[in-house]
Write a structure and sequence with these properties.
The protein has 323 residues and is an alpha/beta fold. The chain has two domains: 201 residues, Spore Coat Polysaccharide Biosynthesis Protein SpsA, Chain A, CATH 3.90.550; 77 residues, no CATH class. Helix 10 packs across helix 13. The N and C termini lie far apart (45 Å).
Length: 323
């Protein structure tokens, strides 16, 4: 476990990258730090990073643009240690991350995936309680496929074997949204997972639409893609007793947020809008306002949702290009 690489993926976020790389270097136990740039538009990025960290890091720029999950595969391919953790250039790790992973490996040897608690932070790095999962009892807990059936354990702060990831085919480079979720599921199915009860990773949430995942959400592809991944995880569960895909059960557990429809309903193509309205009508209403919105959508159909979004945009003064 002392042979760990923390690979920092870089594109064009100078305002955050120093914190990300520094958090990898400032571990309480030594690690290798690899920075992999995916042909970003900032011609001076490499010099900017090397001027700060020098020979303490290895810096590689891909020969061609590979995209988010392709760049993760670049990290795996370039890694020269047994285990790797991948870190986005806008996220950061606690100093004890690598040391805690060593402790967890001793507590739960032989697992394919190790990780801790991921803390959601805003653009300034301040914690956002609503985006941080609660702690659990005990020092560590076994994790399995049913724990990520409805949502993944969010990036970053995962540690896995390079050889295992390669054997499982790496990250799906054509994935638009669920590449990490799919890999964690395959690793869990292959060798199990363990989570330590310690806040070790910090994921920065952004409001702007330049971030790829936010673009997927705005375009209405989050739910269809998530349902495909849900089916993939179901297929990994052992028989007998494997549950069948049940969309009603999905939206009962995870109701479609009305705020998504109010903000983006008029941006969706008619087919995707109808699809999301159908999910809305299948959802279990968590409160009265939701039930009223749901009832109006049932009576008036997709037109109501589209016009709700139009009116919301006019009242808020937000243009379509900035929504």
């Amino acid at each position: 476990m002392d042979q760990i690489t923390i690979a920092v993926t870089v594109y064009d976020r100078r305002q955050f990258v120093k914190q990300a790389v520094a958090s990898a270097l400032d571990q309480t136990t030594p690690v290798r730090v690899l920075v992999v740039e995916d042909c970003g538009p900032d011609a001076g990025m490499e010099n900017f990073v090397k001027a700060e960290f020098g020979s303490r890091i290895e810096y590689v720029r891909n020969s061609r643009r590979r995209g988010l999950f392709g760049n993760w595969n670049s990290c795996v391919e370039l890694c020269r240690t047994e285990r790797i953790s991948i870190l986005h250039d806008d996220d950061f790790l606690a100093p004890r991350f690598a040391e805690a992973m060593r402790e967890l490996e001793q507590l739960a040897p032989g697992r394919a995936l190790y990780f801790g608690i991921n803390v959601g932070v805003d653009e300034t790095g301040a914690p956002v309680p609503a985006l941080t999962p609660p702690a659990f009892s005990g020092r560590w807990v076994e994790r399995g496929l049913k724990d990520i059936l409805y949502a993944p354990f969010w990036f970053p702060g995962h540690l896995f074997r390079v050889a295992t990831a390669k054997r499982l085919g790496g990250f799906r480079e054509s994935s638009l949204f669920c590449g990490d979720w799919e890999m964690w599921a395959k690793l869990m199915a292959d060798g199990g997972a363990a989570q330590i009860n310690e806040k070790l990773a910090f994921m920065r949430h952004h409001g702007g639409w330049e971030k790829g995942t936010n673009q997927v959400i705005r375009e209405g592809r989050q739910y269809p893609l998530s349902y495909v991944q849900h089916k993939r995880i179901l297929a990994l569960l052992p028989q007998p007793g494997r549950p069948k895909f049940d969309r009603k059960e999905l939206v009962r557990r995870c109701p479609l947020p009305t705020r998504f429809l109010v903000r983006h309903g008029d941006l969706l193509p008619r087919r995707l809008l109808d699809y999301h309205v159908e999910l809305l009508l299948l959802s279990a209403a968590p409160h009265r306002r939701y039930a009223v919105f749901q009832w109006l959508a049932r009576i008036l159909g997709s037109r109501f949702v589209r016009w709700s979004a139009v009116i919301n945009r006019r009242l808020s003064g937000v243009g379509r290009d900035r929504c």
